[in-house]
Amino acid sequence: VSFLRVLSPLWSSSMSQYDLTYTIGSFMDRHLVFPLLEFVQTRKIYPENELLEAKLTLLNKTYMLDYVVTIHKQLHGASEGTAEMAQHRVAVVSKLRELQAACSPLLKIIEDAALLKQIIGAKQFTLAYLQANHEVTPSTVESLYTYAKMQFECGNYSTAASYLMYYRALSTDNERLYCAQWGKLAAEILSQNWETALEELLKLKDFIDSASGAPNRFGYVASAVPAAVSTPLGLLQQRSWLIHWSLFVFFNHPNGRNGIIDMLFQDRYMNAIQTACPHILRYLTTAVITNKRRRNVLKDLVKVLQQESYTYKDPITEFLEMLCVSFDFEGAQEKLRQCEELLTNDFFLVACRDEFIENARLFIFETYCRIHQRIDIPMLASKLNMDQEHAERWIVNLIRNARLDAKIDSANNQVVMGAQYPSVYQLVIEKTKGLSFRSNVLASNLSNPGQIAGGQGQQRHPRRPRTDAPSPADDQAQKEVTSSA
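Below the sequence we write its predicted structure tokens.
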């Protein structure tokens, strides 16, 4: 992340303390960081020259030569260093031609759409068939991997994604297959193919999670993961990277906010967040607030926010804590104002800014209505950070759309709340929430009766006879009391 260390916050900006570009960039491929720097540049959070220097440092280890020249001219003038760049361009073009020649037998098949369709349709796109009929050797396949990687470094992301797809179908090198999976995901993200990127993300997630050695639903096994990655520390690192890369997918895919909630509330990923990247709680909190159908996870999220408040907090996480823990409506109102500015300056959240503000206001209103039966509209407008006329119109729309059981008392300028009762459906969910876990624990205990008695290898003591057993007279007295009752 050396290319990010040149950034020093522009402290005149109130949002620089909440900018996560450097923090998130340390978990990203350098090509994925570039869109973040482009966005930050438009927001004027950092000085222009420092951002250009960061971009140049980022691009120097890639083959995106035209862009390097453009930024270099902006920083150092038109002529300085152009001779070195021209020599570098010649070397890169020569290397590309060399790799293209090395994998040309395979490229001829890939670029011939009719032949490729015929081979795939006959289910003959295998190394054995291509080696026997089209002079494709294992070294040809590995050259395709190197060529795809170089295309990626040149910024040809769609081409790289296509080549990596065919490489994965032919290669038997487990370590390179694992690296190709990451490369394919990055290429699809940078090509903005969100459906395909989501599929690749789920494949990679399953790839990482299959640490038991059994094949998973995508056919991969844990042995395909490099040994260094299979350690507890390696798995923590891989999951942390996957969480950060997934932000591109989940905040651009139509169903992404459900996906991020489903993924990050799994124990192994929540553990990764709490251990390595608590700043991800900003994005999880935003997904929960903007997704009214997933409010069932709100209690669990608030618990995590309370636990991690000493390591990470920002206006978004503090807003939820003030509203759900301390019921500080004045503080929540102030945090909502800060959230508006924070969302505007966050690359992943800027698109859902208006939706967040709308749902946050509704959340404040719902929470306030749970503890009040009559509410003054002017006071409510101030808590929602709205003028009185806009607030009254907003409440009328809520009532009209059947989202609020209330009526407006125009004479007293108040909102009168109706009686609210928990639904039977919600009560059943709450009562049976931990039923599956308790059943598994009970089944486990029943399958190991020795452990119930006090541990493995210990014998159970015989039950002693009761010394307070009821006498026949006591039985008769009990029958008389029962009959009289």
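Residues 9-13, 217-222, 451-470, 477-485 have pLDDT under 50 and may be disordered.
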